[in-house]
Amino acid sequence: xxxxxxxxxxxxxxxxxxxxxxxxxxxxxxxxxxxxxxxxxxxxxxxxxxxxxxxxxxxxxxxxxxxxxxxxxxxxxxxxxxxxxxxxxxxxxxxxxxxxxxxxxxxxxxxxxxxxxxxxxxxxxxxxxxxxxxxxxxxxxxxxxxxxxxxxxxxxxxxxxxxxxxxxxxxxxxxxxxxxxxxxxxxxxxxxxxxxxxxxxxxxxxxxxxxxxxxxxxxxxxxxxxxxxxxxxxxxxxxxxxxxxxxxxxxxxxxxxxxxxxxxxxxxxxxxxxxxxxxxxxxxxxxxxxxxxxxxxxxxxxxxxxxxxxxxxxxxxxxxxxxxxxxxxxxxxxxxxxxxxxxxxxxxxxxxxxxxxxxxxxxxxxxxxxxxxxxxxxxxxxxxxxxxxxxxxxxxxxxxxxxxxxxxxxxxxxxxxxxxxxxxx
Amino acid sequence: xxxxxxxxxxxxxxxxxxxxxxxxxxxxxxxxxxxxxxxxxxxxxxxxxxxxxxxxxxxxxxxxxxxxxxxxxxxxxxxxxxxxxxxxxxxxxxxxxxxxxxxxxxxxxxxxxxxxxxxxxxxxxxxxxxxxxxxxxxxxxxxxxxxxxxxxxxxxxxxxxxxxxxxxxxxxxxxxxxxxxxxxxxxxxxxxxxxxxxxxxxxxxxxxxxxxxxxxxxxxxxxxxxxxxxxxxxxxxxxxxxxxxxxxxxxxxxxxxxxxxxxxxxxxxxxxxxxxxxxxxxxxxxxxxxxxxxxxxxxxxxxxxxxxxxxxxxxxxxxxxxxxxxxxxxxxxxxxxxxxxxxxxxxxxxxxxxxxxxxxxxxxxxxxxxxxxxxxxxxxxxxxxxxxxxxxxxxxxxxxxxxxxxxxxxxxxxxxxxxxxxxxxxxxxxxxxxxxxxxxxxxxxxxxxxxxxxxxxxxxxxxxxxxxxxxxxxxxxxxxxxxxxxxxxxxxxxxxxxxxxxxxxxxxxxxxxxxxxxxxxxxxxxxxxxxxxxxxxxxxxxxxxxxxxxxxxxxxxxxxxxxxxxxxxxxxxxxxxxxxxxxxxxxxxxxxxxxxxxxxxxxxxxxxxxxxxxxxxxxxxxxxxxxxxxxxxxxxxxxxxxxxxxxxxxxxxxxxxxxxxxxxxxxxxxxxxxxxxxxxxxxxxxxxxxxxxxxxxxxxxxxxxxxxxxxxxxxxxxxxxxxxxxxxxxxxxxxxxxxxxxxxxxxxxxxxxxxxxxxxxxxxxxxxxxxxxxxxxxxxxxxxxxxxxxxxxxxxxxxxxxxxxxxxxxxxxxxxxxxxxxxxxxxxxxxxxxxxxxxxxxxxxxxxxxxxxxxxxxxxxxxxxxxxxxxxxxxxxxxxxxxxxxxxxxxxxxxxxxxxxxxxxxxxxxxxxxxxxxxxxxxxxxxxxxxxxxxxxxxxxxxxxxxxxxxxxxxxxxxxxxxxxxxxxxxxxxxxxxxxxxxxxxxxxxxxxxxxxxxxxxxxxxxxxxxxxxxxxxxxxxxxxxxxxxxxxxxxxxxxxxxxxxxxxxxxxxxxxxxxxxxxxxxxxxxxxxxxxxxxxxxxxxxxxxxxxxxxxxxxxxxxxxxxxxxxxxxxxxxxxxxxxxxxxxxxxxxxxxxxxxxxx
Lengths: 425, 1145
Hints:
The complex is a heterodimer of chains A (425) and B (1145).
Chain A: H1 14-18, E1 26-32, E2 50-51, E3 71-75, H2 90-94, H3 109-116, E4 124-129, H4 132-137, E5 140-148, E6 151-156, H5 159-167, H6 173-195, H7 202-227, H8 229-235, H9 241-244, H10 249-265, E7 271-276, H11 306-327, E8 330-331, E9 334-335, E10 340-346, E11 361-364, E12 375-378, H12 385-395, H13 407-413
Parallel strand pairs in A: 1-7, 1-10, 3-12, 4-7
Antiparallel strand pairs in A: 2-12, 3-11, 5-6, 8-9, 10-11
Helix pairs in contact in A: 5-6, 5-10, 6-7, 10-11
Chain B: H1 3-7, H2 29-43, H3 45-48, H4 70-81, H5 96-114, H6 134-138, E1 150-151, E2 153-156, H7 159-170, E3 200-201, E4 207-210, H8 214-220, E5 223-224, H9 247-266, E6 275-276, E7 289-292, E8 295-298, E9 307-310, H10 319-325, H11 331-346, H12 352-369, H13 371-379, H14 386-389, E10 390-393, E11 405-407, H15 410-419, H16 428-435, H17 442-454, H18 461-471, H19 483-488, H20 495-519, H21 523-529, E12 532-535, H22 540-544, E13 547-548, E14 554-555, E15 568-569, E16 580-582, E17 588-590, E18 594-596, E19 607-611, E20 632-634, E21 640-642, E22 646-648, E23 659-662, E24 668-675, E25 679-686, E26 697-703, E27 706-712, E28 730-738, E29 741-749, E30 757-759, E31 762-765, E32 787-794, E33 798-805, E34 816-822, E35 825-831, E36 849-857, E37 860-871, E38 886-889, E39 891-896, E40 907-908, E41 916-919, H23 924-930, E42 943-948, H24 961-966, H25 975-986, H26 1010-1013, H27 1020-1026, H28 1030-1033, E43 1045-1046, E44 1048-1049, E45 1052-1053, E46 1058-1060, E47 1070-1072, H29 1075-1083, H30 1086-1101, H31 1110-1122, H32 1127-1135, H33 1138-1141, ...
Parallel strand pairs in B: 1-48, 6-9, 13-43
Antiparallel strand pairs in B: 2-10, 3-5, 4-9, 7-8, 11-48, 12-42, 13-14, 15-40, 16-39, 17-32, 18-19, 19-38, 20-31, 21-24, 22-23, 23-30, 24-29, 25-28, 25-31, 26-27, 26-29, 32-37, 33-36, 33-39, 34-35, 34-37, 41-42, 44-45, 46-47
């Protein structure tokens, strides 16, 4: 039947990735909610693509100024097709229509990359930062990442839970106690579930097996983690007061970042997705001295606004911390950072109420020499964010013409095929 | 060959029927080849041997099935079963039996060969059900046909069912109300909310109030979303093999379980201040309301602390609560909690062994972690019990009959009957029947099914679910629409609102289906041809039921409704209102206020208005001398002008003797300056604001690094646009680098403006130099400030709610300052009087009054409220629309805390509503977000109107906008999808899967009709399949892709012709003029009704039919026919059939 749109994403196969020389090893996505205003990212006075050498950055991202040679700033990609007002949700990393309570319509780029990069025990770690009570009451939420159509991937928002999951096996005290109790429970459940196989016909065993195997998967990860105690011990973050009695939500944000860094450094994961504001329009940053919370923050101008300077600079300090932490660990002839790409952007393009006609990004690191750095790149608005994702796939050795975009949409939303050549070496 | 072998066409559920087909299990590949090759040689080699290779397909070297040629074998299976091959023109044709034999052989072999390579399941898929020939099923029954049964199996709960059970643990839903049979009651499926998704909320019934809009309510409440893993997007979905539970889902279920158990134990997870008996008990500061620079802001907008709950919880109090409420651990309580949870989640009591297992686990957990943490974690495994996620039909204990079948019995039978209708536990009578041994025979089942079918108080969400899956009308909200094209087609301008509307239409169609089921006469035919529809009062979706005229406008009377007339508001009288009312006639008036009665949402005969800001600033601030100001000041007389600029001096807060004005396109004024040294300067301008100015005057700063353009609103006072503070004169544009020496630094332009552009003075200040002028910040109090003060005499001291009424007057100001003077000081509000009331403080709005909150007042006389004509500050984001210019004041109401706000009738209908009033399902959440006041009872917003549609435009569900949209795409109709629906769901045909070589695209020709663009499908290779769909879909071209009726397309009369062909029923075949004619014809067809019966069979049996099911299908069809098209009769027949009752292990 001729018209049914062919929506199968043009995904690279694992085989292609395996044949790559050169070694990009990890990718980090960092999404701040409520939009990344163009005024807060474009170097002062710049209108067209140029070197960042000697550039002055807007107040908001000033902390990145010492690293101009390691970053590139991108403006002028679009997300018109992602319905980004308030948030494009899964559409931000998927490059397809998103919306409140809409299920993902395909996998997202972070998940795609986690399958392609050199395999780790926990290929994809996602952390979400919100206000304190939301992080307590909804320790896992899904809004940004997906493994396939209709399958959201959950982000971890409670650093205690996450610490317990990843470092519980090597911890001590209450953490270890809870970890062990939960392990025992999960093993019990696995036994009870396995008993449920009795009486089933062969045809149903496969179906039921995926349920039982679910528990052994979880229990396996737990036991693998205990076998991996060397690296975990070496890099585990200090389990401090800020975990148990946080004064502000930022204490937990910091804790989550520490766990994320530890997971990268210890080789536990290759893909990290950080969602400041948890992919939605809410969130609070009282720890930075900001009283206004939630949705209202999105109704403000950003550049020239001390409130947003604080949030954005806080993001930048986190980015710097990520870079410096990865630079501190040798890898091959260089450091971990040499084989890393950090992608900083927002889950709703440039502002809270937006059509997504421009979607700013900052890339940090050159990803094993694949990406040019030290440049401001202004696109003309004719290429979608999907093209950037194709570019990253190209860099990790899995080139594709388009990411999550079928022909019908491409005619409307993309002026070219393939990666953004301007960004690649 | 015996008939048994022939007819045991296990290709549909071959895995389960191997017992019946011992000789066909094809363990031996040579056997497979030896049986298949003669067929191929006889019927296929003519065209597909090594020489002919028609269509590049050759069979001469095709050996047994292997992974490489599986696709080709699958194609042979489909083509032969569907009688596509051999081509009709060939004289030698295999008979139906031969075709089925081949189909079965291929399927069995595919399963065998592909077992270790991902398996072969396609024959199990609902969409392949029609591959079994209709005439075989409904023709003469073969002799010696073995009686049927279904395979023993486990069945993953439908996500909706799982969800309903979880909801039972945390919510008390209303009981069934016979007076509102359509309204949501306990046991109904959890309906859509926020109109696009499904959620259950923890503590939704306990919500007392919240900060912000319903949007923030939604985000602040803890919620649980369903765990969906369906692999099917269209059509029947509830087949056991389509569902399992994977590891990420189990983890989520476990996490949700902890959240739910904690809620069951302790209620909403909130801070102490979030609980109150009454809204007035909540402290303002906890409501997150702060006054910042005279502007009320919500600081807790959309955070969990912004929701407030009743102290007395309305959640179900269960043994889990009792366990946690008491200190210590008590075995009895622990067991009660385990048993309760088990039965609530699995719908049956636990066995002793099950109780023991879960008790052991929870005890161990308590030992590990202490009571609170341990009990909560320790109870979660029950949520993951097999019986909580799967229903079993294993028949492990029964005695097989001579065909090796076992009849369902005991709990399995009881739960199977129950699951055919309900998502809750079996009702008392069914439980009783099981207990007393009256649930053993077919007669017993008949009795119980009849009883349940006739009891309206037992909700039957599973039946409704069938009609959703059969028609797919609930998919409309999932179809993305292009905003522009949607609007052009008469749809809503925002695709998000459109999607929400589509979801609401699903709710309305649900109810229409139920009404037709209630009548229970010619159910299918009525669904296909009814002239009824259910509509809300809201006009917007009447438009979708409307007609598109030639010039692209929606015209005509879409549907009857007088009901579409909105209720008109009438003024209320003070005497009809509770509490103390101070109307404007009693207010102390200062300055100039004018009476108006233009807006009806008022108290008494009139209200007062005054123009904001007219007496301010301009008069209070005298012109400044440039020489007296710090920094470099360039006044307008030094500006280099082009175009035409006039001079004026009426608005006083300017610099020098006058300022320049222009609205002539192309006029510019450039300000030259000589900088003493290179460096950074702050650039500040004066604008002499007035209402006749441009709201977006273009001002460009040319600095060293380039240019920066600003759009300045010159209608409102300076300083409010950017940081930099206001001094009543200047507005800062920010700091810029300039070189030393002469420089054309600032340009004013009329370009793109919408009023007079003003160019007055520009000031350049080096950093560190203060721009402060004499008396800065706030201007002097205006001499004739217009204010209105409401005096009141309080009978006693105490807390009162203050509610302010004002007409929604045209041109009302968006930031009117209203001050409440209370016992503890003053609270200033900045009200947007142009929007709906309650839009800002989201509480206690009823179209007349805006609540300002609760305040303490002393007894006796008091000047309690003041309305000012002073301008409230407006932030940059509020510039986009009109800001208005009138402060409006009507009356103030004071209600002692706890007084209900009920008024006597304040509205009347302009016309009586058309059509009968019916109710539809809405969630608690939806009702809550729509309620008129925090203290008001929930509004009956579930009311809808049952109306008649114009017979020349619409006929039945297939012509309703939501069905049409569900079968459309982003930009146009989808004739193929519509045709496919008719072919499969009504005619019982099937379309083979799209060959991979097909590039499925229509040409992109926006100026051509869909019919013309579909010419590409007429190419020979495409048409083979498309002839089965396109002519059935194109008659729906009488509607556009938003579902509006149309007579023209692209300026020409629309072609709505089509054709029914190869239906299998000779009288059906032939051309049709439009969709209505086609639907009418189909609705009378016997075959169409039989195909409907086949679909009902599939849904309730959870599998595709086999030839052995033929007697069951024929009986079900007879029951339906004999009863005059009764769904109840059809269901009774199906649910007492062998297919339903018997299992084969």
